[in-house]
């Protein structure tokens, strides 16, 4: 793998966007703001996300991990019916795809992904909006921290 040349200070830029946008969109998916008792997310969305997670766990080609990870998240975000926000989140994802795949290979990311994605899916399926948002934010921040540590270490070594 080629050296990572992205300065560590740029990974988290703009501050908070990488976690705020996905958290707001999953919040809207899980709880329809028009009807507090209704969800935009339906069982087929949960099953679609679960299938992408299973495919990610089976996949051995690291080049496919980022795509499958994105499809998992997109399955949870799309029901929010916020195409502009989804586009922003997709753009962020495209810019960090290589780093996400690196993170997954550095820390046994498939197992970490299975655990964290599973908890997120469970919260979404039960309509636990606050828990889903909290789990997603922890998931994203955890990935960012691993990547930042790696890039920082690479900068010191190189």
Please explain how this structure is put together.
- By secondary structure, the chain is mainly α.
- Helices cover 76% and strands 0% of the residues.
- It has one domain: Up-down Bundle (Four Helix Bundle (Hemerythrin (Met), subunit A)).
- The protein is built from 7 helices and no strands.
- Helix 2 packs across helix 5, helix 5 packs antiparallel against helix 6 and helix 6 runs antiparallel to helix 7.
- The N terminus is likely disordered.
In a few lines, what is going on in this structure?
This protein has 158 residues and is mainly α. It is built from seven helices and no strands. It has a single domain, classed as Up-down Bundle (Four Helix Bundle (Hemerythrin (Met), subunit A)), CATH 1.20.120.530.
